[in-house]
Design brief:
aromatic amino acid biosynthesis (chains A, B), 3-dehydroquinate synthase activity (chains A, B), homodimer, Rossmann fold, Dehydroquinate synthase-like, alpha domain, alpha/beta, zinc (chains A, B), seven-stranded mixed beta sheet
Chain lengths: ~350, ~350
């Protein structure tokens, strides 16, 4: 088991990475305020792993119940969130009870937001079961639901008490989702960890083959990068925005096509290539850098082009981004591979040309 | 103008109390991140005071828009909260824009929760326009909406950047609401400020006559009490619970009758008399204390008895309280006038008898 700590003072917590962690009642029990927990999962993950989590809780005498939600980004909304509140209130769940999010990014974001707001805040544990949620969304305390006018528009910064990234749960992950998760892994290399980027160029086949050691290394390295950024800037006043490389373009794809059409990681990959192209136009990346970035995404089996929605539609959707300030679109771009920056002065013509070049049929 | 500061480190903020404050553009401008604000009010308060607030913002060059919600506790719910999100997203309101809550406790709680969760948090200002919100709900950062199964069950701790308690706005307050606000004023005397309780016994007629000096004193003294408690215990891990004297009984009344039938302060008053009766049964208060507590509520024109709902129904509704721990109802009771305590071991028979004695027709 690999472990690291997200050192946020009184909100600090551990991340454990390894196999068989969801069977470890001792790990769950170590952070519980009292011996009661509510496991919240979805109809895909619950049949696979909920019984193991409940058995682990039984083994340490923790009373529990299970709430199963519909699956998918399309359900990351208020009506589904309200199913959680209905279940908690119906069972008279108290402030001292811990919620356990068992699932991917949608479950983690939604259960995290439920924990942030149920009775003004109850403790919660993240048990991410997708590569994407293990390397990114389960760490750092961003929680949210979507609004028809924008992704993650309603949410809170609220840290979990523990993150258990169990590599066992990746065994049943569809290939498409594994690849989507790799987009966020590549991101850490691009924005702040060139050495990791180099490692990924060599080891991508091992990750696609689900080699345990390679996965454990990549997950730990990703979480370390994420934790360092979050410790420096918990509420995204500055450097944390770098984690959104490719996300402004990517959110436009997700919102434009309707949530769930493209996976989040797939949209981020296409968005990252747009951001790379724009960085090249601004003179920061050269052709070879852009080619490397395309190649590593290709090696991960990710789409290299966004959907054809029309540049105007992209720009319109991007204008809703949370990083817009004083009407100005602020984009995360690359100074070079391994160094990101937030830039608000990219000419609209260059943004449009970058989208145009990276979307539609090749 | 009287002023005090809620010293919560980087979340510290000022409370100003006086007349004509909503015309003071300089006060608003002093806490704005950038010159844009969204004023959110309801259909009763907006026609009375919104134009003054907007003119004040104009006078210091702050761009603004106004959102008007339906009025009443019955609208402190998700659909109404979502009207705020729709308006903010429709107008592409950014993270750096400040929300201004202009209204009573419902508007303050709901706009505060919108500010806590819109794009994971934007700044907001409280402009409470009822006595109850000026002395209580606008201070301390408790925000929430109701759920059909319980009051304030979904919310967050989220502090405003400024509170402007303008006594002008009390001029149009209906008598019934003024009296309801006095219930929360009396509360501070009961739980921690015996000297203030003594002052209230003498000055209640001046408050009912809306004497400016008496109101300013009572509001400031209440806010000071509240600020001291909040500074000591921001997230209600301990002493902050004392502010809920009468509230567990009171919430049962509000939920049981349907939100809006009884005003919050009216329900709190009846609940406080139940808590006083229970405190007497536990041997902490004597008959003379209980009589004084009844007298001061009577002098404020408040109902002395809760509605006849049946003791079982009261107990059932109270069991949803946020202070329930390990299945045990924890009640705020009085050791003596001026000193509260949280007590989890009151015999159910005594709780039931206290409700019985203080509800239904006399």
């Amino acid at each position: 088991m690999r472990s690291l700590n997200v050192a946020l003072d009184e909100r600090a917590y551990d991340i454990h990475i390894g196999r068989g962690l969801i069977d470890r009642g001792d790990l769950f029990a170590s952070v519980l305020k009292r011996k009661r927990a509510v496991v919240i999962s979805n109809e895909v993950v619950a049949p696979l792993y909920a019984s193991r989590v409940l058995a682990a809780l039984d083994s340490v005498g923790v009373a529990h119940q299970l709430v199963v939600l519909p699956d998918g980004e399309i359900h990351k909304d208020w009506p589904t969130l309200n199913l959680i509140f209905d279940a908690l209130l119906g069972a008279r769940v108290e402030r001292s009870t811990t919620l356990i999010a068992l699932g991917g990014g949608v479950i983690g974001d939604m259960v995290g937001f439920a924990a942030a707001t149920y009775q003004r805040g109850v403790p919660f544990i993240q048990v991410p079961t997708t590569l994407l949620s293990q390397v990114d969304s389960s760490v750092g305390g961003k929680t949210a639901i979507n609004h028809p006018l924008g992704k993650n528009m309603i949410g809170a910064f609220y840290q979990p008490k523990l993150v258990l990234a169990d590599i066992d749960t990746l065994d049943t992950l569809p290939d498409r989702e594994l690849k989507a998760g790799l987009a966020e892994v590549i991101k850490y290399g691009l924005i702040r960890d060139r050495e990791f980027f180099d490692w990924l160029e060599i080891n991508m086949p091992r990750l696609l083959a689900r080699d345990t050691e390679a996965l454990a290394f990549a997950i730990e390295r990703s979480c370390r990068n994420k934790a360092e950024v979050v410790i420096e800037d918990e509420t995204e006043a500055g450097v944390r925005a770098h984690l959104n490389l490719g996300h402004t373009f990517g959110h436009a794809i997700e919102t434009g096509l309707g949530y769930g059409e493209w996976l989040h990681g797939e949209a981020v990959a296409a968005g990252t290539l747009m951001a790379a192209e724009l960085s090249r136009r601004l003179g920061w990346l050269n052709d070879a850098d852009v080619a490397r970035i395309r190649r590593i995404h290709d090696a991960a089996g990710l789409a290299l082009r966004g959907p054809k929605m029309g540049v105007e539609r992209y720009l319109e959707l991007m204008s809703h981004d949370k990083k817009v300030e004083a009407g100005k679109l602020r984009l995360v771009l690359l100074k070079r591979i391994g160094e990101a920056t937030v830039f608000g002065d990219a000419p609209v013509a260059d943004i449009a040309a970058s989208i145009e070049r990276c979307c539609g049929d090749a």
